[in-house]
Amino acid sequence: MSSRRSRISEEEINELISKLQSLLPETRRRGPGRVSAAKLLQETCNYIRSLSKEVDDLSDRLSALMETMDNNSAEAEIVRSLLRS
User: Fold this and answer.
1) Does residue 29 lie within any of the structural domains?
2) Residue 84: which domain range?
3) According to the model, what pLDDT value does residue 4 have?
4) pTM, rounded to two decimals
5) Are 24 and 44 in contact (CB under 8 A)?
6) CA proximity to 51, closest of 25, 20, 73
7) Do the domain assignments include residue 55?
8) CA-CA distance, 78 to 81, in Å (whole number)?
9) Are the CB atoms for 77 and 70 separated by under 8 Å?
């Protein structure tokens, strides 16, 4: 069984790189200009790692907060309803 890979044109790659660059805070601050694809991918990986760490930290803080709350309190119910949304 042979599969045929579709080719992505250089123009499509440049468009995807430009879109990715617009999503990253570091590259947006830098302003318009060309960044190498390798540098952009490295910055993307770093940004994803930092977001993952931030999620872990916020999760830990939320867990600690929930432990200090009375499970039947209004505040605990508000937090639970926010987590369900």
Assistant:
1) no
2) 34-85
3) 63
4) 0.68
5) yes
6) 25
7) yes
8) 5
9) no
